[in-house]
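I have been asked to look over a protein record a colleague put together. Thanks in advance; the entry in question is below.
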Amino acid sequence: MNDFLKRWNIEIKDVKLYETALSHASFVNEHNKKQDYERLEFLGDAVLELVISDYLYKNVLKKEGEMTKLRASYVCENALFIYMKDLDLIKYIKVGHGEIGEIKKAIVADIFESIMAAIYLENGFNKVKEVILDIIVPYIENPNITFFNDYKSRLQEALQTNKKSFYYETVDESGPAHDRKFTVVVKIDNIIYGKGIASSKKEAAQNAAREALEKLAGLENE
C-alpha cells in the first residue's frame, strides 16, 4: 500500500484512516476494531462520481443521458474491481475468516472508493482528483475496454417501441449487514420476466434486466 501512496506523493498523516479504509466488517467484528470501511466508502463514492462527472463534462461532447451512461461504465462495480486488481491492491484488504479466499467483487469495489475517501480527507480534493484521473482516464481513452453493459437502459429502449409497462421490485433482502444479498425482479405488464441477485440493488436490477432481455430475445426467435 505504501508503494501505491508514494506513487502520487500522498502524505500519510493518519495510518489508522487507511487501515479503516481497507477493513471489511467481518475483520472488524473478529478483531474488535472500532470501524469498517463503509462510512469512507459512502464519501468516496460521491468524490469518485464528482471527479468523473467533471472530467466527462469538460472532455466529452455528448448529451446528458449519454454522459450518465458513460460515467456509470467507469464507476461501476466491475470497473472498480479491475482498478484494484491492476493496481495490485486487493492483497491489502482485511477480511474475516469467512471471507478469506477470493474476496467478493463488491467488497473490492467498495474499498477502492474508501481508499479514495481517505486520500481526499488527508490530502484534499485536488490530490484525490489527480489520483482518480491518473487511474481511470487511460481506461476511458482505450476503446477496447468495456466494463459495463447498461441492461436497464437497453430493456427500456426495447419496451418503448411496444409501449409496454414495466417496473422493478425488490422482493428479498437477506444476509448480515456486511454481506447483504438483494433479489430484484422486473415485471413487464405485471409478469415477471427477469430476476437478479447481487450484493447491491443496482447490480441485482441490472441482472434482472439482462435476464428479461434474454427472455424477450428468445420469444422473438420462436
